[in-house]
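A protein record in our archive is deliberately plain, so that people and models can read it alike. The record that follows is passed on verbatim for readers who wish to inspect the format.
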Amino acid sequence: MLKLTASILLLTLFSAFSAQASAAQVFGNPVQGGLLYIRTDRPVVYGDRTLTPRDGFVMIGVSRDYGDELLFSIGGKPYRVEIAKQQWRVQRIDNLAQRMVTPPEHELPRIERERLAVRSAFSASTFPGLPKCFIKPVQGRVSGVFGSQRILNGQPRSPHNGIDIAAPKGTPVKAAAAGRVALVLDDAYFMGNTIVIDHGAGIFSIYAHLDRNDAAAGQKVEMGQAIGTVGMTGRATGPHLHFGTSFFSSYFNPLSAINYNICQMDGG
């Protein structure tokens, strides 16, 4: 395969096995936690998934711990994109109730049910659109970054799979892109009131710690439509929105969706 050097916004990829090299263009952010748009009119085989183009694009979200190259094929021809490694911060959060760091045993079945509900929501993307544009769902201070290693009450825990945006309780939270509500959780143990939206093309967003859920499962929402309000339900030390994005069940950095979407690249 031809080795490719990635630029941040646009790569033109050529298959090494094409006599007249057919090009595929990749837009986005080729880093760990990034989001990529592949411009093609043919299905893209990525791992065990066959991704069907929508409006001439396929999307792939890159997880936090992804390796140094992303492989896919189009029409049996392999392509490779170099993925830049990231340096992840360490974030220490103290003064949490200890039951939110080490839950009591009787709460473990509930926590597992809620985890599986989110995973199930991520398993199938049925919304017919392609999320070309993303907005920040609430204005406020980013108080927690994607990928940071969390130290909770002095104990190492899983890396952060989204961003936290601090804002006053009751501030409206908006859908980051058009889609359909795939899941609504009321008072989940860690996430509190939570909404998951399917945006199509395998892309989902999650909004947690809401004070109030204002959307119902199955409801279609438009970009910028209010779906709830900022709160501090679940594991939270102050009012904020936990905002996450995923490609099926692989979380990627929401700021990649906001800062490297097709709308911005086309000047829209």
In short: The longest helix spans residues 108-123. Confidence is low (pLDDT under 50) at residues 1-9, 14-21. The two ends are 35 Å apart (CA to CA). The CA atoms of residues 179 and 199 lie 4 Å apart.
